[in-house]
Specification:
heterotrimer, A: about 400 residues, alpha/beta, Aspartate Aminotransferase, domain 1, Aspartate Aminotransferase, domain 2, 12 strands, C: alpha+beta, binds pyridoxal-5'-phosphate, binds FE2/S2 (inorganic) cluster, Nitrogen fixation protein NifU (chain C), iron ion binding (chain C), NIF_FeS_clus_asmbl_NifU_N (chain C), iron-sulfur cluster binding (chain C)
Chain lengths: ~400, ~400, ~140
Amino acid sequence: MKKRVYLDYSATTPMKQEVLDEMLPYFTEKFGNPSSIHSFGREAKQAIDLSREQLAKSIGAKADEIFFTGGGSEADNWAIKGIAYANRDKGNHIITTKIEHHAVLHTCEYLEKNGFEVTYLEVDAHGRINIDDLKSAIKDQTILITIMFANNEIGTIQPIKEIGQIAKEKKVIFHVDAVQAFGNIKINVNDLNIDLMSLSAHKVYGPKGIGALYIRKGVKIHSLIHGGAQERRRRAGTENLPGIVGFGKAAALADENLEAHIQHVKVLRDKLIKGIMEKVGYVRLNGHPEHRLPGNANFAFEFIEGESLLLSLDMLGIAGSSGSACTSGSLDPSHVLMALGLSHEIAHGSLRLTIGDFTTEEDIDYVLQELPKVVDRLRQMSPLYEKVKGGQK
Amino acid sequence: MKKRVYLDYSATTPMKQEVLDEMLPYFTEKFGNPSSIHSFGREAKQAIDLSREQLAKSIGAKADEIFFTGGGSEADNWAIKGIAYANRDKGNHIITTKIEHHAVLHTCEYLEKNGFEVTYLEVDAHGRINIDDLKSAIKDQTILITIMFANNEIGTIQPIKEIGQIAKEKKVIFHVDAVQAFGNIKINVNDLNIDLMSLSAHKVYGPKGIGALYIRKGVKIHSLIHGGAQERRRRAGTENLPGIVGFGKAAALADENLEAHIQHVKVLRDKLIKGIMEKVGYVRLNGHPEHRLPGNANFAFEFIEGESLLLSLDMLGIAGSSGSACTSGSLDPSHVLMALGLSHEIAHGSLRLTIGDFTTEEDIDYVLQELPKVVDRLRQMSPLYEKVKGGQK
Amino acid sequence: MYSDKVMDHFMNPRNVGEIENADGIGEVGNAKCGDIMKMYLKIDDGVIVDVKFKTFGCGSAIATSSIATEMIKGKTVEEALQLTNRAVVEALDGLPAQKIHCSVLAEQAVKSALLDYARKNSLQLAGLEDFDPTEDHHHHEEEH
Ligand SMILES: Cc1ncc(COP(=O)(O)O)c(C=O)c1O
Ligand SMILES: Cc1ncc(COP(=O)(O)O)c(C=O)c1O
Ligand code: FES
Ligand code: FES
């Protein structure tokens, strides 16, 4: 079979075998509905209770502060709309950043159409917000600050502790989208003064279609999905039992292996960045040099376009991603890259390679061998590169 | 091991082995994010496309009218809120019934708090609505009729075709919660003039945590979960890939086996009903004698209470459910049983036994042997029964 | 996502490069939109004897440029003017809906090079009267 090198761990991860093994009995044998009072229901309920504890433990929360959802996007939508509508009497102002995931941004835009006001904080060239900007954005009507822990494209980590401190002082509810950070950074919701936090299992070697929202005890929130009394009446719907079991296991594994995981991906990531910087000209690293996710590398290659880069790599079995507009079918390149102040051309040539637990040193060597050739081939075709070679730049 | 007889198929079903087999590769090997353009992403995308077609075919829809959700409750919430808010300029009136699932009822109640008006149609003693009631409930402001295909507790099937006809004539959008009907009744959304329809995989031997909303082409609806461009921009969130694959397979199996399934469960169900009616006194069948789901039996045993009945059966390895208030932790017995006009006492003594593909004749024989003894034992303890025996009733 | 034909032209693009002293050069698109196509024509006696291109853009932009050069090579100027984006799409066995504009760009690039040729030689070419190479044809159609 053709060589396949997966370097898109921030998009999604393969599930670990231990996670699958944990889930398997819950499909066909222990399949009960956790709301049922008979033995089938009770064994299902117990499994969910255990998962909830595993998840709670991994973020320093209490089990009854964990609410399972259908994924990270649902958690974001729920947190933001739920807090907005539950606190409508207190105010209508929300603070977020320009580089949030669409699950946050589009939810905020939806609320803007419905009587809320949203401040989108700028970020610096490395993708970090300015704490003073945040301070001055807070006003009497501010009911929610929602800021991501780490960015999915450029990996930049925000000063969450400082933000949490400010939110606490100003008595504003603080929601954190930690979908990318979870499993890559030690998180303790109490140390960081986080009131709500979104998580997603498929980014940490768990199953797709299951996420969670941490809701600090006492925080008033409306439901997004009404119906049955599941999740202590806050999130209706028959529980995704195997999904929850898998998420619990994945969270427990992520917690146990955190140090080793960080070490493993960081070493490979640094080797990748160093190699590319040495071998390829006209390239820069997007995102923060230090405050970044351990497995994230995001390059901007001048004179070429991201989709053609991705396709060429794919032909070689290398899977990455790009913030190019051509990839997404939208007119503009990634809002994250634009917020960094990159020009359209540069943003178009971005390539994100994200490293995970199954990445090997050979994988990186292979990329370091092939990627420079691909970049070169595409540049030879590019009318923009022509000018550089011709000394016009 | 203790004998275990599962008769709670309406609560949830065990997954079929064929469904699990279909899903398995998508956890650890074919794990790509369907939005990614590399080979991992494309193979994921293809799998989703196939499932969408399987599901569409099973209800006579087109593939691009199927939108995957995190379950039946999300589908109900989305349909009702999404239609309500997208048609707010046309009117604010919604028509439903008193016996809907909580995912519909609580969503309607939520909308009532937000400027909408809801008519809850009464049902007759068998749980069917009156078509004339529906006709006279429709007014100029009516934007949505949401009526379940078949009821989860009593199994009663509504006159969906007539309702669809009226909705079409009056140009009102028609949503159907078909979570219980799907896989038990042949459904064609075009023949029935259904505009939106909620489905859930775990009721048809598919995985938990995955559902779908059918949305007729051209129907204007707001999103419930905002974010990424998944599901043609209508439902954000990384797709539950194995879940979707499993749902597709389950739908295809349900469609193929529909006749055999109906035949199998109906024979056993009829044997169960006949046996209980013969062996136990002071018992009645809740729901419609003919217009009912083939696998549904719902009894009201006088003088006893549902939870104690369930617990006793559970001790014998028999898993059923009840509309008793004691089961749900709420003060009132099932709103469905109350809507039939049952007295509190009678409603409290209800027992739902639902039959599925894995139910055997021996299972039914076992229940017919044990259930009368259990009922009798509990009645011996009941002060209400005492009076009957004493001839006071 | 892409047909085999598109992938072939993307991975093995025909006629990449520049032509010195080209008789017509056309450049369309802009880097802001993420695509620039540059087309060079060598024309002898009203016949396109050589054509080269350079493209900054996605896989489909590169593939459409490549096949467009093949489709006009050896053709007369008049024949080349008949090239439509639809023909380009068909020749590639189709393109995804949101990539159709890349084929429009290829048609524009050819026309723009022909216009340059016509201007240099003070010719009036039928079909180019209303052609404006600076017009923005970069519409990424949204899927619904
Ligand atoms: C009629 C009906 N509607 C909706 C639902 C909700 O579906 P889910 O549990 O998949 O959220 C159920 C089952 O729980 C149901 O029986
Ligand atoms: C930062 C961030 N937030 C939210 C999400 C959404 O999570 P999910 O795909 O599980 O809905 C993602 C990933 O897609 C993400 O990277
Ligand atoms: S160049 Fe952007 S989509 Fe083709
Ligand atoms: S009798 Fe105990 S809760 Fe109803």
